[in-house]
Design brief:
four-stranded parallel beta sheet, alpha/beta, single chain, about 500 residues, five-stranded parallel beta sheet
């Protein structure tokens, strides 16, 4: 299994070629290699790059990582990797590639730059899924890898002090997402970390195995598409509505191997969690990465989670873009992506005739604490008409459900009073379907409104299922009515001022 494959990498190298690439990398091009292009010798990257021409934020980060003064879209460059992340689905395959190409006794390039997070198929009796986590654990012990968020007792996740949950949210919470760095992960939603001004993208097992051995990867510099969103964010909109609108406009192939750079007056209005939602779904438009220029809000979040130094970059005013789109936030309304594609956009209010059988609030896209605050805002003092599944992305989100209050009620109490199913253990759960005993998996002809990121046939389980992608507001409203519902139909939003989820609930 090779998972999501990046545009440029070492797929197809023979064992001898990969070994030669490593030898040449160590010896600084001391001899020619006829089959494989060899990475340059690693040296300390400069703290600042010298701008020779206007560049975008993505181009600046890649130029720094490639130890070049500047890069252009289409350039193929070897970049030094700051963070490599893998998980239980692709980790064993990545480890297999690494050992096959570099030797059974090979050591990883930097045991503090590899982050391993079990999160996908965790709470299941499936023996193969369980074995995947065992393989990760054995490798971590063998290599002395510092950042491994392990789970051994699946009957009670709270009995595992190191277990976190969904990798993309955990990476941010644990301080691994830092401006100006390069992160690769064996998961297509690694682009989530672009919210922090970091170049972050998904790769396949072959490329990840190569990084484990060398700390480098050959990357084609993507062209940038800019999406500028201006005006005041209406109270009834969330970041999920913004990204679904963009994907609906350009299509699931509209940004293939390009950067989606999000900018405009909306960015200071968005918390780091909402920014993650925007960047998270760049891949659903075919994007190589999503990115937002870091600001004071970014620094406050990052500095509270890590003491490691980082460098902020921003796009030059005269930088060139492949495409440049502008949105007026006042023109946007709550939307859904109808089955069976994230670009099958429609206004939520146009889908009132669609009866649903369940709702799902969770995933790296829609399972953060602010997603649950938004859902609780709509659900308070209401009752759900369909089974409503709640899956906190991480252990911290799970704990915060008991800490955050709206009008004196904890989020947990609000969901319980509304008739929701009690929140599950933090994991990816049904977002990727998984084994048949996975919590909330669609096992038949269900119609689900979900805060997840993909709705292709079989994505959440059975191919007979239908998934409508939506914001937490829309998902909660639909749970109340039993049909796809514009949240304005069941909740009186403020027409004069936005009340963001990050400030709507308080810890008392």
């Amino acid at each position: 299994m090779f998972g999501f494959v990046s545009g440029v990498g070492i797929a197809g190298l023979s064992k001898r070629s990969a070994a030669s690439a490593r030898e040449t990398c160590e010896n600084g091009f001391s001899r020619a290699v006829p089959v494989a292009v060899s990475a340059p010798q690693r040296v300390d990257a400069p703290s600042l790059i010298k701008v020779q021409q206007p560049m975008t934020i993505t181009e600046k980060i890649l130029a720094k990582a490639a130890e070049k003064d500047f890069v252009l879209p289409g350039d193929n460059v070897w970049v030094n990797v700051d963070v490599l992340m893998t998980h239980d689905v692709c980790g064993p395959g990545t480890i297999g590639v690494f050992k096959r190409e570099f030797g059974q006794d090979a050591k990883v390039f930097d045991k503090e730059k590899v982050v391993i997070i079990p999160d996908h198929y965790i709470f299941t009796a499936d023996e193969r899924a369980n074995r995947n986590v065992d393989i990760l654990r054995d490798f971590v012990q063998e290599q002395g890898i510092k950042y491994f968020y392990d789970i051994t007792d699946r009957s009670d996740f709270k009995a595992n002090p190191d277990y976190k949950g969904v990798c993309h949210v955990a990476l941010a919470q644990e301080g691994h997402t830092r401006p100006g760095e390069v992160m690769f992960g064996t998961d297509s939603h690694t682009c989530n970390a672009g919210a922090f001004g970091q170049f972050a993208t998904g790769i396949g097992n072959t490329d990840a195995g190569f990084i484990l051995g060398t700390g480098k990867l050959l990357v084609k510099v993507p062209a940038t598409m800019r999406f500028e969103m201006n005006g005041e964010m209406p109270d009834y909109l969330l970041a999920k509505d913004l990204i679904l609108n963009i994907i609906g406009d350009i299509g699931v192939a509209g940004a293939t191997y390009r950067t989606l750079e999000f900018s405009g007056e909306v960015i200071p209005q968005l918390s780091m969690e909402e920014r993650q939602t925007l960047c998270n779904m760049a891949i659903e438009a075919g994007g190589k990465n999503g990115i937002i220029a870091p600001d004071a809000i970014t620094s406050e979040y990052v500095d509270s989670r890590t003491s490691k130094p980082y460098e902020k970059f921003s796009t030059d005013s005269k930088a060139s873009f492949y495409a440049d789109r502008t949105y007026n936030l006042a023109d946007l309304e709550p939307v859904v992506a109808k089955p069976h594609s994230p670009d099958n956009r429609d206004l939520a209010k146009n889908c009132r005739d669609v009866k649903i059988t369940r709702t799902y609030i969770g995933s790296c896209t829609g399972g953060k604490i602010e997603d649950f605050i938004a859902a609780a805002r709509v659900l308070q003092y209401q009752k759900v008409r369909v089974p409503t599944f709640l899956v906190p992305a991480t252990r911290k989100v799970y704990d915060d459900l008991h800490q955050y209050k709206i009008n004196g009620q904890t989020l947990w109490e609000i969901f319980h009073s509304a008739g929701c199913i009690d929140p599950a253990s933090p994991s990816c759960a049904a977002c990727l379907g998984g084994p048949k005993d996975t919590f909330a998996r669609i096992n038949g002809a269900e119609v689900c409104v979900s805060t997840t990121n993909r709705n292709f046939p079989g994505r959440m389980g059975s191919k007979e299922g239908q998934v409508y992608l939506a914001s937490p507001y829309t998902a909660a409203a639909s749970a109340i009515t039993g049909y796809v519902t514009d949240p304005r139909e069941v909740y009186d939003f403020d027409s004069n001022k936005r009340h963001p989820a990050e400030t709507f609930a308080q810890v008392e």
